[in-house]
Amino acid sequence: MTEQNIRDLKEIVGNEDCYNDKAHLSAYCYDATKDRKYPECVVFPHNEEEVSKILKYCNTHKIPIVPRGAGSGFTGGALPIEGGVVLALEKHMNQILEIDMENMVARVQPGVVNMQLQKAVEAVGLFYPPDPASEHYSTLGGNVSENAGGMRAAKYGITKDFVMALRAVLPNGDIICAGKKTIKDVAGYNIAGILIASEGTLAVITEITLKLLSKPKYKQSAMGIFPSIQTAMNAVYKTMASGITPVAMEFLDNLSIKAVEEKFHKGLPTDAGAILITEVDGNLPEEIQYQIAKVEEKFYENGATQFIKATNEQEAADLWFARKNASPSITIYGSKKLNEDITVPRSKLPELLEKIQQVSQKYGVIIPCFGHTGDGNVHTNVMVDGSKAEELEKGHKAIEEIFKITIELGGTLSGEHGIGISKAPFMKLAFTQEEMNLFRSIKKAFDPNNILNPGKMAL
Amino acid sequence: MTEQNIRDLKEIVGNEDCYNDKAHLSAYCYDATKDRKYPECVVFPHNEEEVSKILKYCNTHKIPIVPRGAGSGFTGGALPIEGGVVLALEKHMNQILEIDMENMVARVQPGVVNMQLQKAVEAVGLFYPPDPASEHYSTLGGNVSENAGGMRAAKYGITKDFVMALRAVLPNGDIICAGKKTIKDVAGYNIAGILIASEGTLAVITEITLKLLSKPKYKQSAMGIFPSIQTAMNAVYKTMASGITPVAMEFLDNLSIKAVEEKFHKGLPTDAGAILITEVDGNLPEEIQYQIAKVEEKFYENGATQFIKATNEQEAADLWFARKNASPSITIYGSKKLNEDITVPRSKLPELLEKIQQVSQKYGVIIPCFGHTGDGNVHTNVMVDGSKAEELEKGHKAIEEIFKITIELGGTLSGEHGIGISKAPFMKLAFTQEEMNLFRSIKKAFDPNNILNPGKMAL
Questions:
Q1: Using CA atoms, how far apart are residues B58 and B56, in angstroms rounded to an integer?
Q2: Which of B372, B391, B409 is the last residue of a domain?
Q3: In chain A, is it the N or the C terminus that has fewer CB atoms within a 10 Å radius of its CB?
Q4: Mean pLDDT in chain B?
Q5: Nearest Cα to A239, choosing from A304, A286, A324?
Q6: Do B248 and B336 sit in the same domain of this protein?
Q7: B82: domain CATH number?
Q8: Candidate from B105, B375, B457 with C-beta closest to A184
Q9: Where is coiled-coil annotated (chains A, B) (predicted)?
Q10: Residue B422 included in any domain
Q11: Domain count, chain B
């Protein structure tokens, strides 16, 4: 980018919202992958019209431009790998525009933090279920772009299940509106559908209309302790197919349990093969009792040795402690965590976990696993000494083998985190040449000059 | 098409599954619009491979090709308006391939009739909620292509909410798979998302993977009688925002009530301004009681004069009789029914219905309304004498005005039926030039030669 480019962009957003000094470029060069890719300029638009002008300018001058929310993604989606502009939406475009209680709908700008919306709607008795682990800092624009999941996906689904409409700006500057504040809308192509999970490669989202639910009045948590990971995985899919739908059905394997216990000394069952932590909700106490009884029945039927019910909020928090602290705890196994979020049909979980154990033995790497088993999503963490090249290589080989196993079991490379650059090398495992060609045709239809988040998703 | 084209297509599917005789062309020239558009050839593929060969052939020879299920669509989606091939999928590609109880998923071919799947999954305790009025004859391929709704959409959503994966053939013959048998999948663009509701213009769907739910154990129906349509519409959105979600919340206006009563003499309240018919479901009797009590409270709060609860299946069927027979009954008001399926945010229903009454007075046409108010979807029926040109013209003007009102209220041209050719002239009311350009770019990305269902959706 030239000095003239910077001056032109300042013309659009003002001097106070366009920077190319070292401090700003450093502040916008990272995400949760810990990679560093420096932009040439950081721009903070105030509104959709400015986003349009900026995109039109970049398109005309063939300048790469990368939309960014909180920079909390795990796959490099917000990294400007070809330089150019980082379009930072969290500074000014971060307002909840409307909570429409009559239609149970919220309209937000992309920079609103997930938890900010959750709290605002819960204050008026409504409920926005998608709760990625990053809920306290990730933005809704990022959640839509990556189609974020969360613990409650087992019952309520993921971000795409709540997006009713999007406003967005195309790379040529055209402003479009896709969808309506209506439950149904079948006029025209489902543009919102293709923008969700498109990782900022097709358009810049400027407004999001989200479906809200009523907040359930009651909930209860419980934990099941299992002798082996296989018994736990059988219990997962048999419970989910038993006629009830728990809100969450999370698991920790033995390595993860031990790691949390070593770090926090909470009295966790370190000899257990796995634990399952679950929550049910509803509007009546009878619904809670019915669901918890059914979970207990299915857990014991499938080999649980113990079933612990929380009887108040503190006990529930205690049960959830292990799950919420699994990710930071497992660092005891290695300085570098190769963290993936593979997902398989639930009935394939026992086989998946068995095969991951074989991969662990084959490569001599430790692979603690935990995650959202209620929807088949497992966070596999290949732990290595990041300072040793041969360890890293072994780790990457183990990951590739785990991806192959996942695809063979009918699963997907990513349940929540997206592809970005981290998983781009594995796209050929998951998609045929014909499918990749189609992705590229679609990219070209939206972005013929390839200015928007270029180099992502193996496009 | 030439005789050689016919011989070549026979080479692909066999002599018994490719026809260009008058009987076949007549049998495949219609849909529920009652328009007639004759194909030049009807082909019945046996499998995905044949679909691929046929599309590749048509693409090479620039022959238009229109996929067709039951031909029950309301907007001309299956009409071959430019001649060419009708690709009829209901004859051979009509198998339920799998009901996977462990993962609660069904895999079906596109020619499976909606009710055939509903019955098969209910036999094993599962549940496929989308229930368009055409459920006894429309196919799931058509349901996906039009994103069909139904009475249960208020609680359970529409077809798109149940599609997990699609296999499809692109116009160039490429076979693609989009999505997985997993709750989550964020790898690659959401191709299934854009194929849903694309009205057969982007690809031919060859296999559908659908999410299933557990069948709720209990349900109960009730009817509320209201003095005016406005009181009923207020009751709709206030009930839906009260913390419960009825499965269905259907309405009939006074004209529709009178029509059913005149035809069937069921003792309906012909002096009522409107009736609402609702159903709640759940796994416990307590859930049913709680929900019905809440509906009753909200109905009376908003002006209902009577609330009738069904206490057994026969009473429920009696309550639903009026709704299920509204469509055939209103023909008493005119020989030609201009039937639209506009949808607005629920809170706009009172204003919408008031303005439709004004349109009715302005043009001197009778407009009985009924429909799926629980999701804001109103079937407006402009009734005219189809033999009088000036009557038809008045009717079309009334329809255009209703569309304008709908868009102004934040609604959509179509909640369920799609655009096809019937609503193509109104696309310019709903979409900007920029949005239409984007639709055309996407069409071109999938179908550069414009062979697949050409001339639809104002593309």
A1: 6
A2: B409
A3: N
A4: 96
A5: A304
A6: yes
A7: 3.30.43.10
A8: B375
A9: none
A10: no
A11: 3
What residues of chain B lie within 8 A of the CB of A177, using their CB?
432, 435
Q: The domain containing residue B374 runs over which residues?
A: 218-409
Q: How far apart are the first and last CA of chain B?
A: 23
Contact A244 B149 (CB under 8 A): no
Model confidence, pTM: 0.96
A430, B188: Cβ pair inside 8 Å? yes
Domain co-membership, A202 together with A222: no
Beta-bridged to residue B336, according to DSSP, are B384
Do B379 and B230 fall into the same domain? yes
- B383-421 pLDDT tens trace: 999 899 999 999 999 999 999 999 999 999 999 899 999
Reported as a single tens digit per residue, the pLDDT across B268-313 is 999 999 999 999 999 999 999 999 999 999 999 999 999 999 999 9
Total length of chain A: 459
8 A C-beta contact, residue B231 and residue B303: yes
Please tell me the distance in Å from A293's CA to the nearest CA on chain B.
Answer: 13
Number of A–B residue contacts, CB under 8 Å: 293
**pLDDT 10s per residue in chain B (459 long)?**
999 999 999 999 999 999 999 999 999 999 999 899 999 999 999 999 999 999 999 999 999 999 999 999 999 999 999 999 999 999 999 999 999 999 999 999 999 999 999 999 999 999 999 999 999 999 999 999 999 999 999 999 999 999 999 999 999 999 999 999 988 888 999 999 999 999 999 999 999 999 999 999 999 999 999 999 999 999 999 999 899 999 999 999 999 999 999 999 999 999 999 999 999 999 999 999 999 999 999 999 999 999 999 999 999 999 999 999 999 999 999 999 998 999 999 999 999 999 999 999 999 999 999 999 999 999 999 999 989 999 999 999 999 999 999 999 999 999 989 999 999 999 999 999 999 999 999 999 999 999 999 999 999
Selected residues 370-389 of chain A with any CB under 8 Å from a CB in chain B: 375-377
Which of B189, B194, B290 is facing A189, going by the closest CB pair? B194
Does B428 fall in a domain?
A: no
Token digits for A113? 């933090």
**Element of type H or E holding A252:** strand A248-253
- Residue ending a domain, among B183, B214, B245, is B214
> Are A188 and A286 in the same domain?
no
Tell me the pLDDT tens digit for each residue of B356-376.
999 999 999 999 999 999 999
For residue A345, give the nearest of B181, B213, B432 by CB distance: B181
- Best probe of the B interface among A182, A195, A217, by most B CBs < 10 A, is A182
Beta carbons of B286 and A286 less than 8 Å apart: yes
**What element of type H or E holds B395?**
helix B389-408
Q: Is B243 in Cβ contact with A411 (below 8 Å)?
A: no
How many CA atoms lie less than 13 Å away from A129 in the CB half-sphere?
A: 23
How far apart are the CA of A147 and the nearest CA of chain B, in angstroms? 7
CB A108 within 8 A of CB A82: no
Check CB contact of B418 with chain A, cutoff 8 Å: yes
Q: Closest approach of chain A CAs to the CA of B163, in angstroms?
A: 11
CATH code of the domain covering residue A127 = 3.30.465.10
Q: Would B291 be classed as within a structural domain?
A: yes
Rounded to whole angstroms, the Cα distance separating B180 from B163 reads 10
Q: Are residues A261 and A148 in the same domain?
A: no
Provide the percentage of residues in chain B whose pLDDT is more than 70.
100
Q: Does residue A432 sit within a domain?
A: no
**CB contact (8 A) between residue B214 and residue A180:** no
CB contact under 8 A, A188 and B439: yes
Length of chain B in terms of residues written = 459
> pLDDT under 70 in chain A at which residues?
none
**In a shared domain, residues B263 and B285:** yes
Q: Which residue of A has its CA nearest to B440?
A: A445
- Residues from chain A contacting residue B240 (CB–CB below 8 Å): 104
Q: Are residues A251 and A385 in the same domain?
A: yes
Structure tokens at A316: 């529930």
Q: Which single residue is written with the structure tokens 């009205």?
A: B199
In chain B, which among 155-174 make CB contacts under 8 A with chain A?
157-158, 160-161, 170, 174
Same-domain pairing of A362 and A282: yes
Question: So what's the pLDDT on residue B184?
Answer: 87
Q: State residue B358's pLDDT score.
A: 97
Contact A241 B101 (CB under 8 A): yes
